[in-house]
Amino acid sequence: MKILLVNKFHYLKGGSEKYYFDLAKLLQEKGHEVAFFSMENEKNIKTDCKEYFVKESDMNSKNILKAFDVIYSGKNKKEMEKALDDFKPDVVHLNNFQRQLSASIVKPIKKRHIPIVFTAHDLQAICPAIVMLDNNKNICEKCLKGKYLNCVKEKCVKNSSLKSLLGAIEGKYYRWNKIYSKKIDKIITPSEFYKTKLEKDGIDGNKIVALHNFIDIEDYNVETKDEGYALYYGRIIKEKGVLNLIKAFRNIENHKLYIAGDGPDIEKVKKYIKDNKLEEKIKLLGFLSSDQVKEYVRKARFIVVPSVWYENCPYSVLETLAMGKPIIGSNLGGIPELVKNNETGLIYKYNSIKELEERMNDLFNNKAKAKEFGDRAKVVAKEDFSKEAYYEKIINIYKGVIKNVK
């Protein structure tokens, strides 16, 4: 089978890109031919596959005509036509394609009667600002069913009137042209939660299949130990709930919290720690390499995922479970699907600092329970998130859409 994988970034920027490259590797291992369609960038990773690139888009351009390329790019449409005619794929698998690549690339795929699979790594199909948070970083669902006027009024896209207007117009364009509801043949959501949200937005549930992401389990088969500390790793940004975690740690005695990562809220975090004299028990590790993070996870008592927004299927959670460490996670988005409460970790109400404190004290005071959860986590990860199990499901999805289109 020949699969054209599409993603706007061709370097490791986030979860979508990890999935894009890992899926390509898995498909190649199973004997399929893969090609990539993406955007030019000096950070791009060179592969041994065919690669097709469009010119890099400037999302900060003040040229109104160029700005409208986020909605429809004639140049990108032509590049997709060339790629399709050269590679002749059996399936096109879209990942993050909106804005930089634009909906224009869908038309030539449909014209050639090639089936389209789309993995929804985020909720841009519902929210022009993608994250479903208002400007105060509180959960917001006002744009469901295309009610995008709210996005414009609140300047939800980077606090910009122009970008918010473009985001709203883009959202309307996708709806008018039935990109998600008709032209894409199958939508994969990496969580049941995202499937439910897309259904609530009006997309037929029969078109959507929930399928958690996968990892190479052997990459995380490490010998663990318990040095007794709690660990957070990820971006230091409000929606990740790091300040809530620190507040919950104030009254915890005789234990340490390590925080690995960087981001726009790092100075707020540093100030809060200093103002509350928490330097002795909360240590900021800064940005770490993946190997360094793995070492801290390996030695932690547990990991905390304190998100206050709709997480999808975070790789950090899958990797931690595969290493055999328990997770304390908030009850938002796809997290409760991955972290089985009282089996592989503990779930708490996302905005309850008190509950988070109680969950941490529970595992700090019960080393045996933490180990039991961690041992179970490793088994669950192998059963649920292995690349072998994922391959069987994704290849059946491809075969299904090919059969239906042909």
Overall description:
The protein has 406 residues and is of the alpha/beta class. The chain folds into two domains: 2-214 and 386-405, Rossmann fold (3-Layer(aba) Sandwich); 217-384, 3-Layer(aba) Sandwich (Rossmann fold), CATH 3.40.50. It contains 16 helices and 13 strands. It has helices at 15-29, 64-67, 74-87, 106-111, 149-154, 161-176, 179-183, 192-200, 242-249, 266-275, 290-299, 315-322, 335-338, 353-364, 367-384, 387-405, and strands spanning 2-6, 33-39, 50-54, 91-94, 116-119, 186-189, 208-210, 230-233, 257-260, 282-286, 302-305, 327-330, 345-348. It has a seven-stranded parallel beta sheet, with helices on both faces. Helix 12 packs across helix 15. The longest helix has 19 residues, at 387-405. The radius of gyration is 22 Å and the shape is globular. The mean pLDDT is 95.
